[in-house]
Specification:
The complex is a heterotrimer of chains A (287), B (746) and C (158). With 287 residues, chain A is α+β, with helices and mostly antiparallel strands. Chain A contains eleven helices and 14 strands. Chain C has five helices and five strands; from the N terminus they run ββαβββαααα. In chain C, a hairpin with a 2-residue loop joins β3 and β4. Classes of the chains: A alpha+beta (287), B alpha+beta (746), C alpha+beta (158).
Chain lengths: 287, 746, 158
């Protein structure tokens, strides 16, 4: 196994492109080191990128935020403006692992790990986050939901890696929230999860809604019908019931040691409902 | 001189909350645990494990591994000795598989190499040819007549003809006329229950450092609950004479019964013998889960009859336990403890132990009792609910007390069950209001407690300090409690006593730290050793004063003349006698050796409030109170710690912990990520109420306290959840999917 | 495997070591620097027994490659007391019986110290969630949480 800290984005891309064996990119390392220790993966090359320019920075951009790929969750949590603008995204990132993990783990790592249960992913999808990808052919911006393609798989080509995540500007009267179900209160992988991101008009009617669910399909899924069910409502019981039905219809989970198909489907709807209510309140809506 | 024969009730040191002697080392990182010691020239040992649940080992080719640079030894089962006794042969065959891999994770071979990476490569270079066999992991499946046969010919003489091929023992006992008893009942409930296997979950993985010379002499450092037991096992399994193997127990990072046997120690010794170098083996967490002993999983049917006013008329329990791929006797403890809390006219227990393709069961805190009492206490609670009776009143009405003939044979002496139930009833917790989706549950718990072989030596130093040497690893503050008992008996300050735990060659035999025996039995031996030293010190004082030894008594930490003809001599303190001991006859010491009896059974009652989320089935523990009879609480903090720790292990067992096997018989959750022990944020404060009903079998009234506390939580929480969710739960763990499903079907 | 030569500061002192690329910071602390106070309970970030402070952040040292520590600052349990003067958390843990077997204790102390430096007056709930990544199997956490509260009070009044 080789461990390399390349000096530039270009050098990193070349290294990753040219390595014939298994490669892993190290940001926080909280997934990669677990894979190493459990001998699930034995990479030939580990490329450490977090020292590169911008990887550790949170910067304002077009009214939104650009978050470097090496920024650990704990730093995002401590960034007051970011936290105020996107509490749902932050609470997703803040639920990954323990306090100790928080000091290292990154949203980009969580995304590229390709787990459908990644806690920070539904919040980013609901937020309409866009990632910047660097590769042999230069840079491209990609909607976050297009990155994971299946458990452990991403749409990134060989030599490509994510350098940052962009969270767009927040309109007035908007709010987001993320909830997950775990058997304990901490330290578990989500059995099911849901994020909601709402925008309201002045009388509290939902004008735009994005609902994303996790751990109930091969990838985190943006459920457009669930969002549509909320638009035009003030989260009345009918709208919520329709939204929950849309979420349940979008679920195609598996039975495994963490939960059953039935349980995951049912709780995904419940969590989406609860997240929508929190997001609504954060957007200033009242019923 | 005379010593009072009765249980002592007035204390100076006992009952204080002193600081433990090992505290500084443990808060500064200096304390040395199993994996913390290294030796010059040491090799790294590593174990190859079966990926199959059940497979015949047709061939093991170690040649490629042995040929690797840096590989110094490779061992398989045949490199160990062949013990005659079944017990030791099972330990050996569990340490390294004989002709079959009996469970996922069963050790097959081991290597010692100069680095971790070479050891890893060497493990991979071993070629094992397996023939996969059908496997069984569920207790009920394993008992069927057509189940895959785990091991041939392991049924003992108790097993009735026609039982399934995996049943290894059968038992039944009880008293009274069951049929007549049930006929007198107004209500009878019979229910079946299942409990999952849980792991002790100690944070420190097994680790050892072995050094074995060509002369057959060896030294072994390991984390264990009993260094003498390790010596006995390793001597048998490796073919070493006991005296040639010195075993030193490291600090132990939790055991809870799981470190009362051997998994890697004989392997490390064999590797060291073969390589001529020290060998260290440290298990990974995955190895701990896959290959060390979890507790049994169980299936049971319990039937209880009750009158309208809450008198139990008859009760029976059928208990089926699986203890993994080797025979175990755990169901006996379950059957014996099932009805221990009740004074019954008609009662009968039946038990079966069966083999499965799982790791060999190891003791886990009150082994066998929690799952049996869970089933019984669930049925009693359901009867109370059905008959509209107060569950505490019903337990008081039927409570075992002094003179009760226990279902398993003995007649109880002084026991604290009634006092414990009354304390629970009087506690504000029992009367506190409950909200929506909330339920309160309670359960009694019981454990026998053990005494056993114990050896203590107490030495008086020239400066008036005292050293106690004992042979039981300190898993919960016992060095402090032993020092306290020595100080109490000698009537000197606690700070003047230092207790150390010694190796196998420096003190006579001691049983394992188990059965909640240490504070009781080592304490008893320490008190007796102190009494011997006091007798000697009185003799020395008498000699100095020129009077009869009989005319000297020990009071306030000093020898004093007593009686009409003793004369008027100022008292001589321990320090004064010690300073002069060279000229009065030489060193002063006391020692005591005993196979201690009279441990005194212990009862507890747990009260718990839970809230169940009706939309997700998630259970929150809102409030928890433990009531337990501790006999005399030597160090109340550590007694509370045992009560709290056991309760929380039981909470994990009730709600989330379980061994999950796939269809392929492989363990699916060998990590703390998915083997979910409780974390700090899952829990409320665990309140404790210590009751002190002295045990007549100990000079200070001590009972064991370590194990009883894991027994009640299973039923207490199940009863609370059943009431909160309005549906009777009968399977553990009560994971959210299971609770939600039960609620949807009610 | 090509070894690395790494320079770090551990508990305020310069520490140089050679390591293999797949060695973790925990491996190096324990096996190359002789600091066995940090424990390995799982190796996968699930138990917190290996907690250290890396560049002023609480981390699991089992999830950090040793090579990543180049130029970094590491604080471990061995550096918590000031000579023979215990940190208030260490002192209160002994006084309040907040440890039984003690193997999780170094990690919990390091984590609790990090909490109190950030938040001198945490609520019981905040302490419980902050320490959720530190497994303790002996105590049921009760006395640990109370000891952290007591130490925090002592530190605030100092």
């Amino acid at each position: 196994m080789k461990y390399v800290k390349p000096e530039s984005l270009h050098a990193a891309s070349v290294l990753l492109s040219e390595e014939p064996g298994t490669t892993r990119i190290l940001a926080g390392g909280t997934d990669v080191l677990v894979q190493l220790r459990s001998e699930v993966v034995e990479p030939d090359l580990i490329v450490d990128l977090k020292h590169l320019e911008g990887f550790g920075d949170i910067t304002s951009e077009d009214g939104g935020f650009r978050i470097g790929a090496g920024v650990p969750s704990a730093e995002m949590y401590e960034h007051k403006a970011l936290h105020a603008a996107w509490p749902g995204v932050i609470e997703g990132a803040e639920l990954i692992g323990s306090t100790q993990i928080q000091g290292r783990c990154t949203m980009v790592g969580n995304l590229c790990n390709g787990s459908p249960a990644g806690d920070s992913v539904p919040g980013m999808v609901a937020a309409g986050a866009v990632v910047r990808v660097h590769g042999p052919d230069g840079e491209r911006d990609v909607p976050v939901e297009e990155i994971p393609t299946g458990p452990g798989k991403t749409s990134l080509a060989k030599g490509e890696f994510i350098t940052s995540i962009f969270l767009p500007a927040r309109p007035e009267r908007s709010g987001d929230a993320y909830l997950r179900f775990i058997p304990r209160t901490e330290m578990d992988i989500a059995v099911s999860s849901a994020a909601a991101n709402l925008e309201l008009d002045t009388d509290g009617t939902v004008t735009s809604a994005r609902v994303a669910v996790g751990a109930v399909a091969p990838t985190v899924r943006l459920v457009e019908e669930a969002g549509t069910a909320l638009v035009g409502s003030k989260l009345d019981d009918t709208a919520i019931a329709n939204m929950m039905a849309a979420v349940e219809a979008a679920c195609s989970p598996i039975d495994d040691k963490r939960g059953t198909v039935e349980f995951r489907t049912k709780t995904a709807g419940v969590l989406a409902k609860r997240a929508a209510h929190i997001a609504y309140e954060r957007a200033g809506g009242s019923k | 001189m005379a010593f009072d024969e009765n249980v002592k009730t007035e204390f100076k040191v006992i009952g204080q909350r002193v600081s433990r002697p090992d505290g500084i080392d443990k808060v500064t990182g200096k304390a040395l645990y199993g994996a913390d010691l290294s030796a010059p020239g040491m090799l790294i040992g590593r174990v190859l494990r079966s990926p199959h649940a059940h497979a015949r080992i047709k061939k093991i080719d170690t040649s490629a591994s042995e040929a690797m640079k840096g590989v110094k030894a490779v061992v398989v089962n045949s490199d160990l000795a062949e013990p005659e006794d079944d017990f030791f042969r099972d330990v050996k065959d569990n340490c390294l598989a004989r002709d079959k891999a009996l469970y996922d994770g069963h050790a097959v071979a081991a290597v010692a190499a100069t680095s971790r990476s070479i050891a890893r490569a060497a493990i991979r270079a071993i070629k094992v040819e397996y023939e996969e066999l059908p496997s069984v992991t569920d207790v009920d499946e394993a008992m069927k007549p057509d189940a895959p046969v785990v091991q041939e010919g392991r049924a003992d003489e108790t097993v009735p003809a026609g039982s399934g091929p995996n049943v290894t023992t059968y038992l039944e006992f009880g008293h009274g006329d069951l049929e007549a008893g049930f006929a007198k009942a107004d209500k009878i409930i019979e229910r079946s229950f299942k409990t999952a296997a849980t792991h002790q979950g100690y944070i420190e993985p097994h680790a050892c450092l072995a050094s074995m010379g060509a002369d057959g002499r060896g030294d072994l450092w390991c984390c264990t609950q009993g260094q003498y037991n390790v010596r006995t096992i390793c001597a048998e399994v490796c073919g070493i004479e006991a005296t040639q193997l010195r075993v030193t127990a490291s600090e132990i990072g939790g055991g809870f019964g799981g470190k009362t046997t051997c998994f890697i120690e004989p392997v490390a010794l064999a590797l060291s013998r073969k390589s001529g170098k020290p060998v260290k083996i440290v298990m990974s967490r995955e190895e701990v889960f896959r290959a060390t002993g979890p507790t049994v999983s169980s299936s049971s049917d319990v039937k209880v009859g009750m009158t309208k006013d809450g008198r139990i008329t008859a009760a029976s329990a059928k208990l089926r336990y699986q203890g993994g791929a080797f025979p175990c006797g755990t169901v006996e403890f379950g059957a014996q403890s099932a009805f221990a809390a009740y004074d019954l006219e008609a009662v009968r227990s039946y038990g079966w132990n069966t083999l499965t393709n799982r790791p060999k069961e190891a003791a886990y805190r009150a082994p066998g009792a929690p799952m049996a009492i869970y089933a019984v206490e669930s049925v009693v609670d359901e009867l109370c609910q059905e008959l509209g009776l107060d569950p505490l009143d019903v337990r008081l009405k039927n409570a075992a007390k002094k003179g009760t003939l226990a279902s398993y044979g003995p007649t109880f002496n002084d026991i604290g069950l009634v006092a414990t139930l009354e304390a629970a009833k009087a506690h504000p917790h029992y009367a506190a209001p409950l909200g929506e989706n909330q339920g309160r549950g309670l359960s009694c718990g019981f454990w026998f407690n053990f005494g056993g072989n114990t050896c203590v030596s107490l030495n008086v130093n020239h400066d008036g300090t005292v050293g106690v040497v004992e042979g039981n690893p300190d898993i919960g503050g016992s060095r402090a409690s032993i020092s306290m008992m020595a100080a109490e008996e000698l009537d000197i300050p606690y700070e003047k006593v230092r207790t150390v735990i010694t190796d196998t060659n420096s003190l006579g035999f001691n049983d394992v730290t188990d059965g909640s025996r240490v504070t009781f039995a080592v304490g008893l031996a320490t008190i007796e050793a102190a009494r011997a030293a006091k007798r000697e010190m009185c003799k020395r004082a008498a000699q100095i004063w020129g009077i009869d030894a009989e005319a000297v008594v020990w009071e306030d930490g000093a020898a004093k003349p007593s009686g009409p003809n003793a004369g008027d001599h100022p008292p001589m303190t321990l320090a004064e006698i010690a300073a002069d001991m060279d000229s009065t006859g030489g060193p002063i010491a006391g020692h005591h050796e005993v196979n201690a009896d009279g441990a005194g059974v212990s009862f507890g009652v747990h009260l718990v409030d839970t809230e169940v989320d009706p939309e997700t089935g998630a259970t929150k523990i809102l409030r928890y109170t433990v009531f337990q009879d501790a006999g005399k609480a030597i160090h109340p903090d550590y007694v509370e710690g045992q009560m709290q720790g056991g309760a929380v292990q039981g909470i994990g067992w009730a709600l989330n912990e379980e061994y999950i096997y796939g269809e392929d018989g492989r363990l699916q959750n060998p990590m703390f990520l998915d083997y979910r022990v409780p974390v700090a944020s899952d829990l409320p404060a665990i309140d404790t109420v210590i009751l002190e009903i002295p045990n007549p079998g100990h000079p200070y009234g001590v009972r064991g306290v370590g194990e009883t506390s894991i027994v009640p939580p299973l039923a207490a929480i199940s009863n609370a959840v059943s009431r909160a969710a309005d549906v009777r739960m009968s399977e553990l763990p009560m994971s959210p999917p299971r609770v939600l499903k039960a609620m949807s079907e009610r | 495997m090509k070894n690395f030569h790494i320079n770090t500061t551990v508990n305020g002192d310069e520490a140089e070591f050679i390591c293999e690329p797949d060695e973790t910071l925990l491996d190096v602390l324990r096996n190359r620097l002789g600091m066995t106070g940090s424990k390995e309970g799982c190796g996968t970030g699930d138990c917190g027994a290996c907690s250290v402070i890396l560049n002023d952040r609480l981390v699991c040292s089992c999830l950090v490659l040793a090579a990543e520590a180049e130029g970094g600052k590491v604080d471990t349990i061995e550096g918590m007391a000031d000579g023979d003067k215990l940190h208030p958390l260490q002192k209160v843990f002994i006084e309040k019986a907040a440890l039984q077997c003690g193997v999780c204790t170094p990690g919990i102390l390091v984590a609790a110290k990090a909490l109190l430096e950030k938040n001198p007056d945490p609520s019981e709930t905040e302490i419980r969630y902050w320490l959720a990544g530190n497994l303790c199997r002996c105590t049921g956490y009760d006395k640990i949480i109370k000891a952290v509260q007591d130490a925090a009070a002592e530190m605030r009044s100092a």
